[in-house]
């Protein structure tokens, strides 16, 4: 517990509670097109003391955490950012990049004393120190609750996310908001899905029946060895999906589909993976059929991922130490190919309803390493503005991100996108829609 009883924290929490975003509800179909926002982002004017909030970014010397710190600094320059990590040399380099309102803290996320010391006098912590697969604890969240510090993580593992959710009552008891899976995918993709479902219920006579998440990333998306480790670890997990309300289990990297991601990406092969948004969307948005697929480029990486699931036993791929050995083996090759393939990222979310309504949302960016930072920053800013209630929430839960705050969150996350549309029929966004006659497209 903080020595000074967290007076600054209480003041900020009160301000956050009073400053809930009151923007108008999202319109049924809106689009945000790309502009040169990576270097000139839209500044965010946080209210009162939230403008000078002190944030700790764990994993801040890595690709995802570093990108998040940079995005927060660009969006709201008055924020005080503490870069948390183990490597002081890398930390000092990041602080030099961020400028005067930043500092480095040496932190070991496996040491509760180290975590609580780092969170002293911090208003919000961002946990970007993955991978989250096979993690045995939620130390960062527990330390956040102990020190009454708001929390966001970029978890992409269902087991970790459910463990985090089990701390809901403890977080609510000390009046702190916490969001798990608050990155790009899952994270922004969850909010896109929630908006599709909300619009369908407002505008359609049918009921939402099928929700499908499709993701494409060129190479590792420039996101480094942690993403590579995450991919390998996911190949060791049986895929959980839902069909007509029933849970089904499938082989990882199976069930390939060729999906049209629209302009700038086109059609790409994607395969089943065990991702947390499938369960959270099924349970929270109450859609009976839900699945998630992912694909990469060049095409031979997909072949390689499929071969690994067939040749290596699942126990091997679930062993973090063995996966780290694989990462060390493949990382130089992957980096070389990334230099050629680039790091484009695209998300497509499809919703089909019982009355035949079919709507799509698409998010495409040239650089995953930039986009993931703005996506995570959007969740952080939403909490600072008071859009989250005390407790532990998934992004699609209205207690986590208020319905009226979703539009501004998506606008912030989509900075620099080359294609971002919400709630459109497929023929309006696909590269080669089919005409069935009389100007009707499917």
TrEMBL record:
Signal sequence, start to end: none
Saccharopine dehydrogenase NADP binding domain: residues covered: 56-171
InterPro entries in alphabetical order: NAD(P)-bd_dom_sf, Sacchrp_dh_NADP-bd
Name listed for the protein in its UniProt record: Uncharacterized protein LOC115735529
Pfam families assigned to the protein according to its UniProt record, in alphabetical order: Sacchrp_dh_NADP
Superkingdom per UniProt: Eukaryota
């Amino acid at each position: 517990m903080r020595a000074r009883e967290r007076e600054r924290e209480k003041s900020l929490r009160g301000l956050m509670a009073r400053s809930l975003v009151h923007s108008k509800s999202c319109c049924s179909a809106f689009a945000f097109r790309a502009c040169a926002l990576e270097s000139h982002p839209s500044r965010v004017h946080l209210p009162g003391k939230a403008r000078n909030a002190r944030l700790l970014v764990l994993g801040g010397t890595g690709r995802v955490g570093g990108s998040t710190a940079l995005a927060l600094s660009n969006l709201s320059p008055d924020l005080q950012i503490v870069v948390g990590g183990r490597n002081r040399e890398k930390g000092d380099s990041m602080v030099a990049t961020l400028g005067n309102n930043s500092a480095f803290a040496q932190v070991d996320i496996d040491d509760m004393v180290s975590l609580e010391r780092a969170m002293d006098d911090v208003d919000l912590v961002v946990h970007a120190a993955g991978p989250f697969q096979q993690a045995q604890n939620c130390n960062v969240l527990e330390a956040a609750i102990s020190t009454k510090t708001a929390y966001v993580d970029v978890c992409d593992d269902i087991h970790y996310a459910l463990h985090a959710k089990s701390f809901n009552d403890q977080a609510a008891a000390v009046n702190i908001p916490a969001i798990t899976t608050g990155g790009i995918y899952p994270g922004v993709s969850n909010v896109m899905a929630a908006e599709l479902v909300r619009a369908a219920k407002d505008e359609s006579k049918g009921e939402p029946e099928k929700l499908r998440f499709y993701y494409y990333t060129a190479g590792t998306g420039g996101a480094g060895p942690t993403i590579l480790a995450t991919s390998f670890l996911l190949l060791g997990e049986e895929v959980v999906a839902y069909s007509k309300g029933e849970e089904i289990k499938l082989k990882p990297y199976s069930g390939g589909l060729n999906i049209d991601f629209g302009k700038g990406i086109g059609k790409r092969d994607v395969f089943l993976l065990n991702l947390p948004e499938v369960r959270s969307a099924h349970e929270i948005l109450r859609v009976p059929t839900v699945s998630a697929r992912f694909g990469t480029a060049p095409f031979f990486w997909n072949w390689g991922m499929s071969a690994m699931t067939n040749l290596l036993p699942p126990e091997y791929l679930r062993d973090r130490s063995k996966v780290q050995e694989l990462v060390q083996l493949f990382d130089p090759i992957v980096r070389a190919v990334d230099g050629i393939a680039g790091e484009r990222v695209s998300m497509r979310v499809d919703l089909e309803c019982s009355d035949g309504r079919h709507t799509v949302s698409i998010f495409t960016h040239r650089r995953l390493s930039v986009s993931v930072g703005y996506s995570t920053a959007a969740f952080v800013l939403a909490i600072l503005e008071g859009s989250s209630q005390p407790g532990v929430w998934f992004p699609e839960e209205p207690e986590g991100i208020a319905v009226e705050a979703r539009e501004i969150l998506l606008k912030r996350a989509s900075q620099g996108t080359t294609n971002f549309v919400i709630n459109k029929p497929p023929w309006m966004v696909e590269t080669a829609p089919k005409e069935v006659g009389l100007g009707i497209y499917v």
